[in-house]
């Protein structure tokens, strides 16, 4: 989805940053500006300033700054598109979307209206539940018995659903309103039965809020030992238990103050921990921890601690959480697993041993790397070849799910030591088998791509037109857009065999194809432009390609590594959001260069290429980058042939991969 930048600028100009920030931070007028305690770090004296004239906020303590959309993204944990829609909705504005049909736009508007209506219904029910709690001595005594104070109950909006079958009929006079069933508050009869009754009865009620603070569902706990102990709202248009976390809205400020989030298994764990000095706890909602949960948590903190019971069920839950966390285990994040003694939950542990002991226990939690290796070696006898082979098989999908970085590479060395294989041998074992060469005439002693002209990262022009006619001489041409670059050679600079070469005598590639916009940039620049224009394409790349791009020297590698983290944390964002997020980074100038046209105006990322053409161009440029990487590995393999008995096997596999690349990049040459 592409949101025009003109609309974004208009929205920022129309919004009152003081009003929006003031919903989350208590502001006091100080001269021409407003000040308050910074919501992004813990402080006792206000250093957070909001300027109504500049429509800008800045903290002199931690350096946080930006406009109103950035505030919603950073503080409320919204994605860019979500923040724009949220802000636009406050002014009754329709967000224009360049690549969305009118029908889809109307459907999206209908969904947003339905979500707002359902949230209003749920909020009204929550108010009724809180009123019922004040009137129920039984429910109040239950909470007091669990050590929950009135202040904490108010903070989390806890209420009580009385035991009657149709209590909500007194709250909603139109008890047959379909919205009550659609929101999950009321259960209706099957097969057209005219039967309706409250879903939640005789339960302590815990409102589930999204990151904006809107009520999207409930969790209810019985007061005794009845089953089920916990009951959640069903899946609705506003609630999905695989994406939401209980207590995240209430814990946002505490996450920044404590420096980590504690993920627990139930609502009462969250509330009890807040009561005992750990307001940075959240809970999954009766489901295993998913990648969506982990991604959402890393919007607020770089450190996650999963807390589980020490029994078999707790270990199984931890194993599922590991699967969800591995794709986000970058070098700058901390992921740990805390296993409590089987006889304790967090509440009972703190009450018996104290908050300080629990803090030490959290600090000594098992790091992700250790838990991953323990999970992989479980049931494997490493004293036998069979046991080591089994661990190798177990650990491969876990290790492969991790993003490339120092942590992943260190773990490769550690895994190799445990299974008694060299790290290179292990890497070779895990590589997908190379496709067989389809060109029998290619000599085994040399690469068929080596006689192609070099492609330096120099003065190159992307070929925006994908279908180039063949050249007049030599029958080569650039058919099908499989060679997406044109070098500014002098005419006849590569006229191998005087007319039998790629372009023929006095023919340059620029002559063989229509000239597009003049933008002299290198291969890495082209890849950066295409990926910044369409960050969703990053997720479709292989782990190998991620590693190659992130390992590029200089600011190119830094830019791709930053993009990788942004996609993991926030999903695919439009260029305007990425541009805002990279301010002050060393690669900012590079990004501006590749995203700026020759006339000095920003590239219209939605207008340059149709999606299939952009995808084809990205594939081609990445294939050339991959070829350069493979060629360097070939050189390393030849150099190691004297000492490494596996070097020649690696060299042959690399040659086969390069031949496969040639078949993709030069179909015209391959069939000539």
Automatic annotation (TrEMBL):
Keyword Thylakoid on entry: no
Basic and acidic residues bias located where? Answer: 490-509
Where the record annotates domain Toprim, the positions are 259-341
User: EC number(s) in its UniProt entry?
Assistant: 2.7.7.101
| Record CDD domains | TOPRIM_DnaG_primases (cd03364)
Q: Give the superkingdom in one word.
A: Bacteria
Q: Which cofactor does it need?
A: Zn(2+)
The record, for SUPFAM superfamilies, names:
DNA primase core, Zinc beta-ribbon
Give the SMART domains listed for this entry. Answer: TOPRIM, ZnF_CHCC
Q: Which UniProt key words apply to this protein?
A: DNA replication, DNA-binding, DNA-directed RNA polymerase, Magnesium, Metal-binding, Nucleotidyltransferase, Primosome, Transcription, Transferase, Zinc, Zinc-finger
Q: Where are the zinc fingers (CHC2-type)?
A: 38-62
Q: Which Gene3D superfamilies match?
A: 3.40.1360.10, DNA primase, catalytic core, N-terminal domain (3.90.980.10), DnaG, RNA polymerase domain, helical bundle (1.20.50.20), Zinc finger, CHC2-type domain (3.90.580.10)
Specify residue ranges for compositional bias: Low complexity. 437-450
Q: How is the cofactor bound?
A: Binds 1 zinc ion per monomer.
- Where are the stretches annotated Disordered? 437-520
Query: What catalytic activity does the UniProt entry give for this protein?
Result: ssDNA + n NTP = ssDNA/pppN(pN)n-1 hybrid + (n-1) diphosphate
Give any Pfam family that matches: Toprim_2
UniProt xrefs under InterPro entries? DNA_primase_core_N_sf (IPR037068), DNA_primase_DnaB-bd (IPR019475), DNA_primase_DnaG (IPR006295), DNA_primase_Znf_CHC2 (IPR036977), DnaG_bac (IPR030846), DNAG_N (IPR013264), DnaG_primase (IPR050219), TOPRIM_DnaG_bac (IPR034151)
Question: What job does the chain carry out?
Answer: RNA polymerase that catalyzes the synthesis of short RNA molecules used as primers for DNA polymerase during DNA replication.
Subunit annotation: Monomer. Interacts with DnaB.
Give the family this protein belongs to, as stated in its UniProt record.
Answer: Belongs to the DnaG primase family.
The entry's free-text remark on domains says: Contains an N-terminal zinc-binding domain, a central core domain that contains the primase activity, and a C-terminal DnaB-binding domain.
Q: NCBIfam families recorded for this chain? A: dnaG (TIGR01391)
Which PANTHER family does the record match to this protein?
Answer: DNA PRIMASE
Put simply, this protein is called DNA primase
